[in-house]
Write a structure and sequence with these properties.
The chain is α/β, with parallel strands linked by helices. It contains 15 helices and 8 strands. The strands form 2 sheets. A 6-stranded parallel β-sheet has the order 1-8-5-4-2-3, sandwiched between helices. A two-stranded antiparallel sheet has the order 6-7. It is globular. The protein binds fe (ii) ion (FE2).
Length: 372
């Protein structure tokens, strides 16, 4: 039985220029998908004859199927052999789709009604330290007709090469840094508790948790700028967590955060953080003596606190970087808690299958209510 796999080579370059030279990027047939800020700051002198797509031209929120369709229309049948995705989660999620032969209608693709055939070489270069998307086989888009996010997880979406360049994260604003690294932390804890976890995935999950918590402790003690010299650690942790959840899966925190992200356009890492403790308190109330006990002991050691205080300590540390908000403060209304619950039960089976313990509709509703 397959226990573990990493399909992409992982490469690290200090500078973007070194990456472009090593991969000989800049020929016709190269399709670079990025955002204008990254292009202006790091890429414009390097792209040569490559075709460049600025994702922000197609929308500023979380990516959706309409954006992919619009890019496809603008490419107008362009022939390309390599897709080079340089960006955050949105860029990578969209760009992965462009490595496939059959893309449109995107909703049909995500509902598995199209043949899934990989046709292009895919190179992923993250500019945040959260999604882990550079090493996963998942693309997540909001499907506008369905008003929720849906994940397409197929091997054809694995990158051929995942390239880590710490230079690209030096300009990441503090808010985006914390939201993305909290997302990576949540990938690590959710994959650790997943029933699909094994000794290999746990090693990556635990290493990611350790790097992120230690980094947060340094930032809490020394201030925001202390993140810059340790950015490589966060980038590494994010890829570790991506490898872990790429094999063992994410679960209820992600599942419950999707309606919040879709309806109120809350950034992915922040919406996950809004849900995190609700799910973990529910897990503790259902099965406190299982693997979650081992996880809490591990976290307590890293946080140097008593195990009973572990969530409180973690919340204090995280809140010093990104204050947690209630669902109502995002504008969520009481009747929407029912709608969100229905949406999770209807659409997020892929993730809910990885929960530490089974969560019923009533459990999901109670989690939302506790966070209201
Ligand atoms: Fe995530």
């Amino acid at each position: 039985m397959t226990q573990f796999r990493v399909k992409s080579t992982i490469q690290i370059f200090d500078r973007t220029k070194e990456f472009f030279e090593a991969f000989r990027i800049g020929e016709e047939g190269d399709l670079i998908i990025t955002i204008s800020f990254t292009y202006e700051k790091y890429l414009k002198d390097l792209v040569g004859k490559a075709t460049v797509v600025d994702l922000l031209k197609y929308g500023t929120g979380e990516p959706n199927d309409g954006m992919v369709e619009a890019i496809l229309r603008d490419l107008n049948g362009l022939h390309y052999q390599r897709v080079i995705a340089i960006g955050g989660g949105s860029v990578l999620d969209v760009a992965k789709i462009f490595a496939l032969k059959n893309i449109s209608p995107v909703q049909d693709l995500f509902e598995r009604k199209l043949d899934i055939v990989k046709e292009k070489t895919l190179i992923t270069v993250p500019t945040t330290c959260g999604t882990g998307s550079e090493v996963t086989n998942i693309s997540i888009l909001e499907i506008l007709n369905k008003k929720t996010k849906i994940g397409l997880a197929v091997d054809e979406l694995f990158a051929d090469d995942a390239v880590l360049i710490p230079e690209l994260l030096e300009t990441l604003p503090f808010g985006a840094f914390t939201a993305s690294s909290i997302d990576a932390f949540i990938h690590a804890v959710e994959s650790y508790l997943s029933p699909k976890a094994n000794a290999f995935t746990e090693m990556f999950s635990k290493n990611a948790m350790e790097l992120i918590l230690k980094g947060y402790q340094i930032i809490a003690a020394q201030g925001k700028e202390a993140r810059i010299p340790i950015m490589k650690d966060f980038l590494t942790a994010s890829t570790y967590a991506g490898i872990a959840f790429g094999n063992a899966g994410c679960a209820a925190v992600h599942a419950l955060s999707y309606p919040l992200g879709s309806v109120y356009h809350v950034p992915h890492g922040e919406s996950n953080y809004a849900i995190l403790y609700g799910v973990f308190h529910k897990y503790m109330s259902i099965c406190p003596e299982g693997k979650i006990k081992v996880l809490n002991e591990f976290l307590a050691k890293l946080l140097e606190c008593k195990v009973e205080k572990v969530y409180q300590e973690m919340e204090e540390l995280f809140n010093s970087l990104l204050p947690k908000k209630s669902l109502s403060s995002y504008g969520v209304t009481k009747p929407q808690l029912d709608e969100f619950t229905d949406s999770v039960i209807a659409n997020q089976g892929r993730l809910m299958a990885n929960n530490y313990v089974e969560l019923s509709r009533e459990d999901v509703f109670e989690i939302y209510s506790s966070l209201y």
